[in-house]
Amino acid sequence: MSAVTSTRIVLASRPDGEPNPGNFRTETTKLPELSDGQVLLRTVYLSLDPYMRGRMSAAESYADPVEVGEVMVGVVVAQVVESRSPDVPSGSYVLSYSGWQTHAVADAGSVRLLDPDAAPLSTALGVLGMPGFTAYAGLLRIGRPQPGETVVVAAAAGPVGSAVGQIAKIHGARAVGIAGGPDKCAYVRDELGFDAVIDHRAPDFAEQLRAAVPGGIDVYFENVGGPVTAAVLPLLNLYARIPVCGLVSQYNAATAPEGPDRLPAFMGLILTKSLTVRGFIQSEFVREMYADFERDASRWLSEGRLKYREDVVDGLGNAPEAFLGMLHGTNFGKLVVRVGPEE
Ligand code: NDP
Questions:
Q1: Residue 112 and residue 39: Cα distance in Å, rounded?
Q2: Would you say the CB of residue 11 lies under 6 angstroms from ligand 1?
Q3: What CATH architecture does domain 5-126+308-338 belong to?
Q4: Helix crossing, 286-302 with 130-137: angle to 10°?
Q5: Which of 26, 60, 79, 321 is most buried, most CB within 10 Å of its CB?
Q6: What integer best gives the mean pLDDT of the chain?
Q7: Does domain 131-283 have CATH number 1.10.8.50?
Q8: How many other CB atoms sit within 10 Å of the CB of residue 186?
Q9: Does 165 sit in the ligand 1 pocket, CB within 6 Å?
């Protein structure tokens, strides 16, 4: 056994509806000695993402759940402390799927080298990583915004939504954001340059949304579901496209929502408006679009046309609370945990 100890956060129990801090447990464990082809990693940044809520449940999904007692899944930026691979030198920074822990042993073939001089390391978890790619692929492949069309997206201050609106504008469309609270709305409008933004907590949210889209909605990039979607549906134009990316307002629901069955009306709308409603998981498009995304996003970032914001929480021990808050919008920007220092 090596002398290296890892502090890790494991799934202690499965939540029933709303998760709570008791669903997580902190443990320490000694890491095994490295074998040939392996690297020892020290986590610098851990990405916290809404999909992790799905992994806490045993319900069938596109990916296997985390087992109770296992370390929580997640992508990290890490520094290589020791290497037994010529391809991944000691001292280098990598992207690794090693989860909520301070140290990990990984196969060198499973990590991706990062260039710390190309962009801030944490951007590999946000604007230049999975969330940015999700926005790029879902919007351009499914949403297909045309110049002059109107694109609506919620969670607009977050990493996916903020990129959706900015990429829509780069493609000549009009971007309308939906966000929670005045600070996020001001950021989306004044710093990201969306054409309009509406607070989904406003009592007259649906009326404000209608006023913000006088020509109707051509692309609704679905991030949240619930009452936001209900307000959007009547405003959709003929041939509107709905990339269904996420339903964060529903992730903690333990039972079906109360009220009338809206499915027949929704199906009727799909028919009469000739809607395209298409769910996707970003990994579907990696092979065909990731290289284009890296080229375009890096250029837009350096040109100042793609902006981003990060919400950095210090200390692995604060990950559960930050994660639980994100499901209700307490994060302001891409949520990352600084687990250890950059050197
Ligand atoms: P964010 O960092 O934007 O965090 C989620 C945000 O959702 C919160 O900050 C909050 O923003 C908003 N939110 C939470 N509850 C509600 C609610 N009840 N009504 C309206 N908004 C709510 O997350 P990401 O940008 O990382 O992810 C956005 C979406 O994209 C999620 O649904 C996620 O699951 C999905 N996703 C899907 C992928 C795929 O491959 N299909 C890949 C990556 C992400 P606010 O305070 O502004 O309301």
A1: 12
A2: no
A3: Alpha-Beta Complex (3.90)
A4: 110
A5: 79
A6: 97
A7: no
A8: 13
A9: no
Cβ(44)–Cβ(338) below 8 Å:
yes
Token pair, residue 156, equals 């607009």
Q: Tokens for 343?
A: 């050197």
State the pTM of this model: 0.97
Query: Per-residue confidence at 2, pLDDT binned at 50, 70, 90?
Result: low
Which tokens is 220 given? Answer: 């609704």
8 Å CB contact between 82 and 142: no
Cβ proximity of 177 and 166 under 8 Å? no
Q: Is 201 in the pocket of ligand 1 (CB under 6 A)?
A: no
CA 36 to centroid of ligand 1, rounded, Å: 40
Angle at alpha carbon of residue 144, lines to 141 and 149, rounded to 5°? 160
> Does the Cβ of 143 fall within 6 Å of ligand 1?
no
Beta bridge partners of 45: 77, 338
For 206-244, the pLDDT digits (tens) are 999 999 999 999 999 999 999 999 999 999 999 999 999
Report how far ligand 1's centroid is from the alpha carbon of 268 (Å).
Answer: 27
At 29, give phi and psi (nearest 5°). Answer: -145, 145
Protein residue with least CA distance to atom 16, ligand 1: 249
Domain boundary assignment for the chain:
5-126+308-338, 131-283
Scanning the chain, the segments in alpha helix (DSSP H) are: 51-55, 130-137, 159-170, 182-186, 205-212, 227-232, 263-272, 286-302, 319-326
**Contact status, residue 18 vs residue 255, Cβ threshold 8 Å:** no
Cβ within 8 Å of residue 330, ≥6 positions away:
322
Question: What span, in angstroms and rounded, lies between the C-alpha atoms of 338 and 299?
Answer: 26
Q: Give the Å distance between the CA of 158 and the centre of ligand 1.
A: 7
Pocket perturbation via mutation, ligand 1, pick of 55, 127, 160 by most ligand atoms within 8 A of CB: 160
132, two tokens: 């940015």
Q: Is 308 helix (H, G, I), strand (E, B) or coil?
A: coil
